[in-house]
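Could you help me review a protein record that somebody else here produced? This is what I was given.
***
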Amino acid sequence: MKKTKIIIPAIGLLVFGFILAKMGWTGVFHQLQVIRRALPVLIGLSSLRLALQTVAWSQTLRAEGIRASVGELIGARVASRGIGYLSVLGPAVSEPMRIKLLREHSPSVTAATLIDTGAYWYSSGVFAIIGCFCAFHYLSGDRHVAPLVALAVLIAVGLILIGRPKPLLPLLVRLLGRRCPGSLQQAGRIEIEIRRFQERHPWPIRLILTLDLACQVLLAAEVAVIFVCFGIPVHAGTVLALEAANRIVRAMGAWLPARIGADETGMAAAFLTFGLPSASGLALALGRRTRDLLEVFLGLGWLAWRSKFPAQQVLARS
């Protein structure tokens, strides 16, 4: 296990080093210049997205009667996202941590937080499908189309399962009977709570989805920022197709801590596939990485600050 923890990051660093070697120091310096111009805008867009996500999460919590301060919600999200960014399979780490950081408020925080997460994934899936269709347009007749079709169908099936009103896991638990693992039984109970939440609070669900869709627009705007910095004509279809490619890259690189090397390689290849300079894809990945590392630093700082206060004081400030 210890060897694996060393080997996996080493692979990512080797890939990252290979990219930098291919570009040469002149190319790297140019990317740093672009990142310096784009980074303030990327941070601004990220801050606005964080604000919208916080409002969406607070809506689910308030619907369950849970009152948490805005600062606590922002801190918990940034901290959990930062720890997940540094971990293998980040979402598997960040989401349980986000729940744990607010667990002292109420046990129902689990269902409310998972509703927030599910709504965000749903909106992300909608944009991914739109991006895949945009990619169909630009890659028509190319060999890359078949995997995109399969991916779009897979995402669509996932969205249908997320959006269906009836729970799915309890049916699977009944079919397995005594052979059903305890973790699956617990997941089935959580899904029932989530479906009940959807029935009790239809308006907050619509508001949350609207806010999450706005977050997806802000993510696509980050690609447009790089286009402007490189003097590339901004076309909505190309931007959406590249943002869909970014989501594929993030999913494929989730097994690497901080997805080091995967983001840079994947986005450079994606830009090249659409006939754009690979350097612009690399600049986008490096800009986002710089912003993410800043977020990691802030999240770890918030955790260190929070550890100085007992849970009772945190609740008193809510």
Q: What stands out?
A: The CA atoms of residues 139 and 169 lie 38 Å apart. The mean pLDDT is 79. The first helix runs from residue 2 to 63. Residues 2-317 form one domain.
